[in-house]
Amino acid sequence: AVVSTQSTGTSNPLFLYLSYTSPHAPMQAPPEEMQRFSSHMVNSSKSRRTYATMISIMDEGIGKVVDTLKQRNMLDNTIIVFTADNGAILGKKGSNYPLRGGKQTLFEGGVRAVSFVHSPLLEKTGYTNTNLHHVTDWYATFQKLAGDEPEKHTKQQLPIDGVDIWDSISRGEPRREEVLMNFRDKRMIRENKEHEFRRRREVLSGQPRDAEDDDEFEDDAGDFFVIRWKDWKLFTGSDYKVQGWTTKNSLGSKMLVDQRGVALEGLEKGGSGTKLFNLNEDPREEVDVSAQHPDIVKTILDKIPGYKAKMTWINKRTSSKAGHQNGIWKPWVQDE
Length: 336
Known about the structure:
Elements: H1 2-7, H2 31-34, H3 46-71, E1 80-83, H4 108-111, E2 115-118, H5 137-145, H6 166-171, E3 178-184, H7 186-205, E4 224-229, E5 232-242, E6 269-278, H8 294-301, H9 304-310, E7 324-325, E8 328-329
Antiparallel strand pairs: 1-2, 3-4, 4-5, 5-6, 7-8
């Protein structure tokens, strides 16, 4: 990343995407680096010191990039976004306290990821932004900031999902009020699996699909949708993961509790039905208020057919020998 920054002319636009796999399993760190945390983490486990070391090394790497931008006088016209992709996975080394659930669930502990934005271009700084944003918004935002119009690069029947959120970040002005957080339609999944199976079978064997193979596409998981609308968040469907809460100062604990603080058996269980939470009043998602607000439930449920109508399957890309070199994937499409 530092080399890429150094090799770019200071007058040329630069987009740098730096994706760290740390901190993430497997939890590993050089022993000599872990010594830095031995004195002030004497009561912490080895796994926690390993976790701290991984974060520290990542921090140093990011610092080198920022220092390079400073040295090349590029920082004053640069926007730095640091963001996570999801909450911590429960039972490992992290904690999402006081939020409910963790990675691989649709509760706030799994989907509410922390971020920060640093730039002299921000009109408003030093504040906590609680507006609704989605990861797809970064594409539209960066394109707009670069002077482009992302709408020109999309098909009319398949518009981009993200919105330009720069005014939301820079001024605190909300730009979106709704996010589709999960879409699982059993019928569409079955049809897509059948199509993919037929394609693979015909390519590999040259034989058409047999009718008796239809049973291969039965999926035990039922329909499941999660939609965030304004302060409301609706779960509806079946066979979805339900998790409880971690307790304060219980980093990495495998024990979760319910709303009363009573220990739960296991990290998760299956859930079904329709549940509604008001995240403004109940950010911990403790109280299902669907019975008290049937009008809100109906408003959100009525949005599902519209999402179904616009849902489009992504065509799988074929492999490229040119892009697969020495065991890693590299860009293989040359600019014209």
